[in-house]
Structures are given as structure tokens and as C-alpha cells.
């Protein structure tokens, strides 16, 4: 899944260099999956990118056999549904959160990464990815031995940051070795894109 989606960002000749990023691809797949069939204009509005960029995105999806397009709009192919199903199993939960002790803004989106804890170091890579995506930052946590931990900050979130712990455990069913990233921004859209970009750094390419 990761290798396939990242290949859609590569420069291809002839054709324009894509002006969208990985989180636009993810959000597009999600929106098409949830809507069933969507037109280019509506998709452009949802992704906050121009119609030209959206046209290129849809063409890349079609070339990869992830979507089919008609006058009524775009819908996922069987291959697209399979990729989206794999995405959902890798990132089982994405949800909005209120501001808490660890977040940086009023708009916060948390993403759960199944089995992602092993790739977390100090959380700096996730923070940087979120900032590049337009968020103010991101906080990364891991769930091990029935404890939620923030590397270099807290060995027990339940004790040190009870509001965060209460929010996370109410919204997500964490399993051993899961990771959680929370993207913070001044808008929900930027917070979501930041969280997705941060979460994306915690999965391996297939066969890697």
C-alpha cells in the first residue's frame, strides 16, 4: 500500500509534476470510499487543491486502477477498495480531539497506527512531517505493557497527563505496540493532514 501510493507522487513524462502530497492521496481515497461516487469539483473542494491538481490526482488513480471515472464521478475499483481496506487496518482510528496538556492548538486530530510503536524514536520525525504538512506540530505516543508512553517526555501518560489519557482511551481501543500521533493546527483540515503525514512515517513499505 505505501509503495503503491508513494509511486503516484513520482514525476512522470509526459505530464505535470504532481502538486499534491501523500495526505491528499489518503484523504481522496477516504472521501471516495465514504461517498461512493464523487465529482472532480467536490473532490477538489474537499482536498483544498486546485481542479488541475485534482485532475492529475484522479488520472494517477486511474492509471493505478484504484478508481474508475464516469460522467457521474469517481468511484473505487476492486483494487482501490482493497487498498483502502489495508489502509483502515493499518490506521484503524482517526478522530478529532479537544485541546489538552500536550497539544499545541485548538484543532487536534489523532491517528492510531497498528503496530507502529517499534518505529517511534523520539517523535521528532513525526513532528517534522506534521509541520511540513501545514500543522503546528505533532505529539507521538506508544502503547506498551498496558501503558501509554510519550518518548523522552512521559513513561506513564495516565499519571502525568490524565486529560490526554482519558481522551485517547475514550476514543481508541489501543492494542499492544500501537502508536498514536496527534496533529495540532489552527484548522481541522491542517490538523488532519499533519496527523496523516506524521502517521505515514510509522509504516514500512511492503516487503521492506
How are strands sequenced across the largest beta sheet?
A: 3-4-7-5-6
- Radius of gyration over C-alpha positions, nearest whole angstrom: 17 Å
CATH topology term of the largest domain: Gyrase A, domain 2
Total number of beta strands = 7
Describe the biggest sheet?
5 strands, antiparallel
Strand residue content:
15-25%
CATH architecture of the largest domain: 2-Layer Sandwich
Structural class: alpha+beta
Outline type = elongated
Q: Supply the number of helical segments.
A: 9
Helical percent range?
A: 40-55%
Mean pLDDT: 91
The CATH class label of the largest domain is: Alpha Beta
Euclidean distance between termini CA atoms: 12 Å
CATH superfamily of the largest domain: GAD-like domain
Order of helices and strands: HHHHEEHEEHEEHHEH
Counted up, domains total 2
As residue ranges, the low-confidence spans are: none
Amino acid at each position: 500500500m505505501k509503495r503503491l501510493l508513494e509511486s503516484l507522487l513520482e514525476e512522470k513524462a509526459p505530464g505535470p509534476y504532481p502538486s499534491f502530497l501523500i495526505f491528499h492521496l489518503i484523504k481522496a481515497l477516504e472521501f471516495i470510499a465514504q461517498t461512493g461516487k464523487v465529482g472532480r469539483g467536490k473532490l477538489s473542494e474537499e482536498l483544498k487543491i486546485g481542479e488541475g491538481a485534482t485532475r492529475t490526482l484522479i488520472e494517477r488513480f486511474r492509471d493505478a486502477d484504484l478508481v474508475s471515472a464516469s460522467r457521474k464521478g469517481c468511484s473505487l475499483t476492486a483494487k482501490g477498495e482493497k487498498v483502502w481496506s489495508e489502509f483502515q487496518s493499518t490506521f484503524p482510528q482517526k478522530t478529532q480531539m479537544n485541546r489538552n496538556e500536550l497539544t499545541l492548538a485548538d484543532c487536534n486530530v489523532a491517528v492510531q497506527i497498528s503496530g507502529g510503536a517499534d518505529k517511534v524514536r523520539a517523535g521528532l520525525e513525526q513532528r517534522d512531517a506534521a509541520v511540513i504538512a501545514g500543522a503546528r506540530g505533532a505529539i507521538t505516543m506508544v502503547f506498551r505493557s498496558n501503558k501509554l508512553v510519550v518518548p523522552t517526555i512521559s513513561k506513564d501518560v495516565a499519571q502525568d497527563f490524565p486529560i490526554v489519557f482519558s481522551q485517547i482511551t475514550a476514543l481508541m481501543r489501543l492494542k499492544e505496540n500501537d502508536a498514536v500521533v496527534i496533529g495540532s493546527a489552527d484548522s481541522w483540515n491542517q490538523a488532519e493532514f499533519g496527523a496523516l503525514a506524521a502517521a505515514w512515517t510509522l509504516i514500512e513499505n511492503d516487503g521492506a
